[in-house]
UniProtKB/TrEMBL annotation:
Native organism: Methylobacterium aquaticum
Parts forming coiled coils: none
Record has Phosphoprotein as a keyword: yes
Transmembrane intervals: 188-213
CDD domains in alphabetical order: HATPase, HisKA
One Pfam match: HATPase_c
Keyword terms: ATP-binding, Kinase, Membrane, Nucleotide-binding, Phosphoprotein, Transferase, Transmembrane, Transmembrane helix, Two-component regulatory system
Chain spans, region Disordered: 464-498
Keyword Transmembrane helix: yes
Name of protein: histidine kinase
Residue ranges annotated for the Histidine kinase domain, each copy included: 280-494
GO MF: ATP binding; phosphorelay sensor kinase activity
Source species, domain of life: Bacteria
Amino acid sequence: MLSHSLRAHLLALWILILASAAATGYLLAEFYAESATVQVAQAELQAARACREIGDRFAFFGAGWTGSVTDPDDTLKGQLTDVVVTALASQPGVEGGIWTAAGGAAAHAFPTDEGTGPKTDLPAAEIDTIRRINADALSADRPVATRRASRTQTLVVQGCPLRGPIENATAWTMTRVHTDQGRAYGQLLAGFGFLAATVLGAALLLGGLLLVLGRRIARLEGELARETQEGELPRLGATGLRELDRLVEALNAAGTRLAAARHRAAEAERLAALGQLVAGIAHEIRNPLAAIRLKAENALASPDPVRARAALDLVLDQVARLDRLLRDLLSLTQPRRTALAPTDLGSVFRDCAHLHDDLARTRFVRIVVEAAPAERPPLDIGQIRRALDNLVLNAIQHSPPDGTVRLSGSREESRLRIRVSDEGPGVCEPVRSRLFDPFVTGRPDGTGLGLAIVREIARAHGGQVRLAAPPPRATGTEATAPGATFELDLPWPAPPIS
């Protein structure tokens, strides 16, 4: 997956391109609107000139008339049509006519129409607009103009009152400004086309870059996630992109150096562990051997058979201690194979409590079995019994008089949690980080192998053992109780669905 920073930069670049395109498109549209506005204004001026031209021709036509006319006859209408044709002959794209309040259209002409013949019929779609503009001009007794805009064109209509022998007569002119034609419209389309091409090209380029980088980096992620021996970095293949290949070469070189360093560190760790183990064994054996030698010398030198027998009894006790030490060492170093079977954990808890009850009584300590799951988890009962024996013995030895050792178990989703807690002083900080290492103990008489054996049993079950926080005391305060709680965290898979 691409890093957030790279995605952000590419996305910001794409947004900038879009913003620039939007601003340029807006300016093009505004320029075009300004151009269209200028064209409409010019059309209004042309319509006004044409309307005045009709008025001037009409005044010349009616000069010298006596009397007045309300509704022109056909002959007069023909003459008025000639007046309009003459007036509009020099006004390209303008049609117009003369209107009377009594009879409506008295004349109409469109001499510059580019159709197949002279246009003599009034435009039906605009007849209402023509009627209204003439009525407004007659009512106001002054020229009146209006415009009507649509998607492709703007209609400009001008009306102006006429002075002459025909009563309540007005002249009108009309022209159209086609906003979807002309040079400005072509420039707008060209500009938008160029913008669309550049934005689409940039989007495709950036999208292709993101796709290619995403696939290459996803492939590198997959290769890096591949499991290798001893956790070494896998060897990465070339991506085909020069920049990424430089990174791949650097990672491969770093992996080679890391493998060499890991090998050296493993060797050093093995030597250190071996040295620690040897030192621990030497320490644990030296004290019993010293005691055996001293007591044997005393037994040989003393003529009192009672003292000699007591010395030999102590020698046997130290030999038994050495035997236990060797058995624990063998148990710690031998590979563990688990024979899993459904186990009644409550029964295992009760047996363990009963086994150590005598020792607990001598130390005035109670062993309490609090809870156990009703289901039967898959466990190696022999190994779990031994792990619990070590944990319970450790808890009894650290509990104060009148203290309580608690055993409990629960199922939490797909995990089994077995807890053994005491009310002793807890684990001191220097020992806490190395609590499960061999020969690490907080008691002067301890061997430091019990918790190490518990750890190996937990690992054999695919789990772990840890020092958990003790439960709070029910005293009304929020302070946690002293003591230690060891927790076996073991897998408990769900039963198969039949």
